[in-house]
Specification:
The protein is of the alpha/beta class. It has one domain: Aldolase class I (TIM Barrel), CATH 3.20.20.70. It has an eight-stranded parallel sheet. The radius of gyration is 18 Å and the shape is globular. Keywords: Lyase. This is 4-hydroxy-tetrahydrodipicolinate synthase.
C-alpha cells in the first residue's frame, strides 16, 4: 500500500491524540456506559483522534477481554467522527491478534507499546515491530518510543521493510535527542507525535513534532486544543500560556516517576462527577489530603 493511502491516518496523528481513561464500576469491572459518555465528551469537545488501550487507559492492568471490549466500545462511539489508534503490545502473538482484531473492527491504526522486556536489542526492537506491522499491512503503525538507546536509523530500517509504519509516539524526555532522532530517521518521512503530552509539546514542536498525546484532554479538551492551535500557528508565547495553565496538574502526574499519572486524571474527572476515581494496581488512588488541589485545578479550567 502506498504512503498516499495513509494520508488520512497521518493527518489524524498531527493533532491532539487523546488517550482515554478506562473507568471502572463499583464492582471493579469496566464501566461501559461511563466510558462511552467520556468518549462522547471528547468527541463533542472537538477531539478527532482516540487511542484506546494507551497507558492512561491502564493498558497493562486490563485483561485481554477488557482490552478488546475497550476497543469495541471506542470504535462504536467514534463512528466516522474520529480516527482510532488502538494500543497493542505484550508478546508478538498477542500484539498481532490485537492488531488484527482492531482491523476487523475498522480501526485505522495501531500504536505499539514500548516492549517491557528488560532485555531489548535494537535489532530485536525492529523484529518485534516488523512482525506486528507485517501482520496488518493495511493499518498505519505507530511505535511508542521511550528507549533513549534506540537510534533513528533503526526506525528508518523498520519503515524500509514496512511502509505502513507512518508515525512515531516519541516519549524520551530529551528535546535535543528527539530532534536528532527525528532527523536521523527522516523528519518528513514520519508524523512525529510528542509522546510526553502538553508539558513537552512546545519544545518538541519546535524540533519537528506536529501532534501530541494527551491524558489531560479527558478533563479539559478545550485546553489541549488551545495548545495545539497555538503551536500550529507558531505562536509559542500563547502555547506557553497554556503550558503555565496546566503546569501544576502535569507536575502532580509526573511526581515520583509518574506514580500518579492516571490517578490524577481520574481524580479530576471524579471531582467533576464524570467517573469513579478508582485505578488498578500498580496505580493507587490519591490520598484524601491531595484531592482538593486536583479538584481546584479542574474547576479552574471552567469546563
Amino acid at each position: 500500500m502506498s504512503s498516499v493511502a495513509f494520508e488520512t491516518q497521518r493527518a489524524a496523528l498531527a493533532d491532539v491524540v487523546a488517550i482515554p481513561v478506562t473507568p471502572f464500576a463499583e464492582d471493579g469491572s469496566v464501566a461501559q456506559d461511563t466510558y462511552r459518555a467520556l468518549l462522547r465528551r471528547l468527541l463533542d469537545g472537538g477531539i478527532t483522534t482516540l487511542t484506546p488501550n494507551g497507558n492512561t487507559g491502564e493498558f497493562y492492568a486490563l485483561a485481554p477481554e477488557e482490552r478488546r471490549l475497550v476497543t469495541e466500545l471506542t470504535m462504536d462511539e467514534a463512528g466516522d467522527r474520529a480516527a482510532v489508534l488502538v494500543g497493542v503490545g505484550h508478546d508478538v502473538p498477542t500484539a498481532v491478534a490485537t492488531a488484527r482484531h482492531a482491523r476487523e473492527l475498522g480501526a485505522q491504526m495501531v500504536m505499539v507499546h514500548q516492549p517491557v522486556h528488560p532485555y531489548v536489542s535494537q535489532a530485536g526492537w525492529v523484529d518485534y515491530h516488523r512482525a506486528i506491522a507485517e501482520a496488518v499491512p493495511e493499518l498505519g503503525v505507530v511505535p511508542y518510543v521511550r528507549n533513549p538507546q534506540l537510534t533513528g536509523a533503526r526506525l528508518a530500517e523498520l519503515a524500509d521493510a514496512c511502509p505502513n509504519v507512518i508515525g512515531v509516539k516519541y516519549a524520551v524526555p530529551d528535546a535535543a535527542r528527539f530532534a536528532a532522532f527525528a532527523r536521523d530517521a527522516g523528519l518528513e518521512r514520519f508524523v512525529w507525535v510528542a509522546g510526553l503530552a502538553e508539558p513537552y509539546a512546545p519544545s518538541y514542536f519546535s524540533a519537528g513534532a506536529t501532534g501530541f498525546t494527551s491524558g489531560l484532554v479527558n478533563v479539559a479538551p478545550a485546553v489541549s486544543l488551545n495548545m495545539i492551535e497555538a503551536l500550529r500557528s507558531g505562536d509559542y508565547p500563547a502555547a506557553m500560556k497554556v503550558w503555565e495553565q496546566i503546569r501544576r496538574f502535569e507536575e502532580l502526574r509526573a511526581e515520583s516517576g509518574s506514580a500518579n499519572n492516571v490517578t490524577v486524571v481520574k481524580e479530576a474527572l471524579a471531582s467533576l462527577g464524570l467517573c469513579r476515581r478508582e485505578v488498578r494496581p500498580p496505580s493507587k488512588p490519591l490520598p484524601q489530603s491531595e484531592r482538593a488541589e486536583v479538584a481546584a485545578i479542574a474547576a479552574g479550567w471552567s469546563i
